[in-house]
Amino acid sequence: MSAEAVPFKVADISLADFGRREIRLAEHEMPGLMAVREEWAQERPLTGARITGSLHMTVQTAVLIETLVALGAQVRWASCNIFSTQDHAAAAVAVGPDGTPDDPQGVPVFAWKGETLEEYWWCTQQALTWPGEPGPNMLLDDGGDATLLIHKGAEFEAVGAAPMPADDDAEEWQVVLSLLSRSLRETPGKWTAAAAAIKGVTEETTTGVHRLYEMAAGGTLRFPAINVNDSVTKSKFDNKYGCRHSLIDGINRATDVLIGGKVAVVCGYGDVGKGCSESLRGQGARVIVTEIDPICALQAAMDGFQVARIEDVVETADIFVSATGNFHIITAEHMSRMKHQAIVGNIGHFDNEIDMAGLARLPGVKRTNIKPQVDEWTFPDGHAVIVLSEGRLLNLGNATGHPSFVMSNSFTNQVIAQVELFTKTAEYPVGVHVLPKHLDEKVARLHLDALGVQLTTLTKEQAAYIGVPVEGPFKPDHYRY
Amino acid sequence: MSSDVLDPGLALVGQPRIDWARRTMPVLAGLAGVFAEQQPLAGLTVAACLHVTPETAGLVRLLTAGGARVQVAASNPLSTQDDIAAALAADPGVSVYARSGLDRDAYYEHLHRALDGGPDLVMDDGGDLVNTLHAERPDLLAGVRGGCESTSTGVARLRRMAAAGSLAFPVVAADASATRQLIDHTCGTGQSVIDGIIRATHTLLAGKTVVVAGFGPCGSGIAERARGLGAQVVVTEVDPARALAAIVRGYRVLPMADAASVGELFVTATGSPDVIGPAHLEVMRDGAILANAGHFDVEIDVRALADQAVELNPAVRPHADEYVLAGGRRLILLAEGRVVNLVAAEGSPPAAMDVSFAVQALALAWLASGEAMPAAGVHAVPAAIDTQVAGLALSALGARIDVLTTAQQEYLESWRQGS
Known about the structure:
The complex is a heterodimer of chains A (481) and B (419).
Chain A: H1 16-28, H2 31-39, E1 50-54, H3 59-70, E2 74-78, H4 87-95, E3 109-110, H5 117-128, E4 138-141, H6 145-159, H7 171-186, H8 190-197, E5 200-203, H9 206-218, E6 225-227, H10 232-255, E7 263-267, H11 271-282, E8 286-290, H12 294-302, E9 306-307, H13 310-313, E10 319-322, H14 332-337, E11 342-346, H15 356-361, E12 366-371, E13 374-378, E14 384-388, H16 394-397, H17 404-423, E15 432-433, H18 437-446, H19 460-466
Parallel strand pairs in A: 1-2, 1-4, 2-3, 4-5, 5-6, 6-15, 7-8, 7-10, 8-9, 10-11, 11-14
Antiparallel strand pairs in A: 12-13, 13-14
Helix pairs in contact in A: 1-3, 1-4, 2-3, 2-17, 2-18, 3-4, 3-17, 5-7, 6-7, 6-8, 10-11, 10-17, 17-18
Chain B: H1 11-23, H2 26-38, E1 45-50, H3 54-65, E2 69-74, H4 82-89, E3 94-97, H5 104-115, E4 121-124, H6 128-136, E5 146-149, H7 152-163, E6 170-173, H8 178-201, E7 209-213, H9 217-228, E8 232-236, H10 240-248, E9 252-253, H11 256-259, E10 265-268, H12 278-283, E11 289-292, H13 302-308, E12 309-317, E13 320-325, E14 330-334, H14 340-343, H15 350-369, E15 377-380, H16 383-397, H17 406-413
């Protein structure tokens, strides 16, 4: 495959009409994004911005992309996961609101559901390649893959070559190395020039933020970054309220089991676990929480949940959900002891919370696919468990992930962060920043009208009494909400 | 007729408390005008066995407003509030036979006094009045048009009487009104039982394992409120349908034999005796708290507790007695095993009783009207009364509801129309 820029690559451009209909519905549920479009319609503060985005190419992301365009930006896009693209959304973005499948006028998008690793990194490279330009001048990243490709490319260009892939390198890293070797040969200096042109990156998620802080600490970060993940209106909202919505949705679509009366075990009582526990209880399940952190365990107990160790309840519960961010939380041995047709699913970011490899290695275990993303694993004694989404994020695998309204909060943070970095570049030196609190509060404010919220305004005297401006920000930075 | 109260001078204390309760009882207040105008109980004598509290005073005054003469006896020696008894006794047309802390003999003597002269209607709370009437005053039975019973416990007794052919007049089972069960049992008892437990112990419920015995209207209300305060609630039941209702609401259901060793607070709300017995007491955790929300003091086997105890520390706090068992475990019994919401707190809040008492008063008016001549036996609250009371309570809450259109009404009444 060539590194030369092509207009776009999606699975099926004829899906654009379906995608557009879903985008219209999503726009109504994304009031924050629609409000910033309106607010900045005249000013178009992103005029001159060339944004490369690497983020799940879904219907909600389409609304984000078209918001960036409405604010004046040019945009190129790739997905940040080989499975997460919604092909109709990608097609609609490529066609654009004013184009047709025969005459696409939208955004160059390189994404389809079920990419190979080679295809995935080719797509990322395409999104970073701007005809007639050294590259983008802004990045919008989710997980940090676009940032990584530029940094590694520039790093290898500085020493003259990419290292040879070693056999014991992870498969994905081998793919990245061979792509960069080819790039160094065909377009030498590309990544160094690209890095120099970039004003900054806005990063969506915990994993990507973690990488950015490591690069900043190691002195290798080449441009400023805004950590969007740690806006209150992002992590406190999509983790808790998004998962509270989509966990139940995923379990229902996968199994249609009556949740009322069941015993559910939720592993982890962080923001995600809290949302999961609340929604399972709301459906009438009795929820048992497992925790390693005494603070979260105490929170669970004070919220009225039984807190137990998984090994003590594994034989009596009906539904197991892992939400820890750690690995091997639900082991093959646990699963072998579960009740017949216990349901096992994960809602943590990575697919290693449930030991699927260990399950597959058990002698005599048999896997029967029931329907997509639902497998029955039968043990030699005849009893079985039902595993959702092969242990990957069940809210995305069995349902459609976070709903539009929740994503509107996250993405409004993204848009505001892009505008901040692009228009106030001098105020953000190289390093990792979070959005100032007044902008976090602005994101929340933009979502109130849609819910009919009537906000009370401080009087001048009240504001003076607690020492805050009448219009906010209202809380100190260390406030935990 | 002369009353028997502790100190008539306490009327001055009781009167403002009755006025206060009346403010939060808008349904009774609304009915008072109707009763005063229509006089549905004109010339009739009502023998009433009630907890003598500011709220029941409102009920008594509604009956007298409707033309009745009322003879009140206390339905529980521990629940009588002497200032209220005094204030009521000062009302024209009312006699009160109630003093706090009376023994059993005096309690029954007061029931007899309330029956003296022969009532036209009876209003009972637990069934002792009706039982005494049948067992010891059969000469008065012929004059009784009917009555109403406000507790589930009392209704169960009446059904057994009726089944044996012993019940001589119609009784309306006021406990089973749907409106009443929701507001008084689930909401009122649910709230005040928690209130009583907290007043008696000051314990934090969040994080506690609370065992609720019985998942009827009261038990489900107690369980729901305990959970709302952050407790983990375990339910025990004998009825599969109710146990299933608890399970699908997300409660853990266990036999008491298993729950006994995990609970930190036990609340009985069953109507049955010996729900917590010697074998349960033997395995309970140190510090466990025992409370009864049921009408009678039979649900926790207090005698077995006393037998197992090597030391009793009475009143470690008001209404909390500590029993030290062999081995050093300490169990805390609240209100001596009597109905904890009335003893340690103030019973159902007035707004809950407002609805119950309205049902009872309207039931007596319905019996007095003679519009239906129900046979001797236990009768459900007429649906019209339930609807009327719910409507009055709704307007008191400021809620507005829809009215069926004529077309909707016809659709619902027709069997010919489908989709």
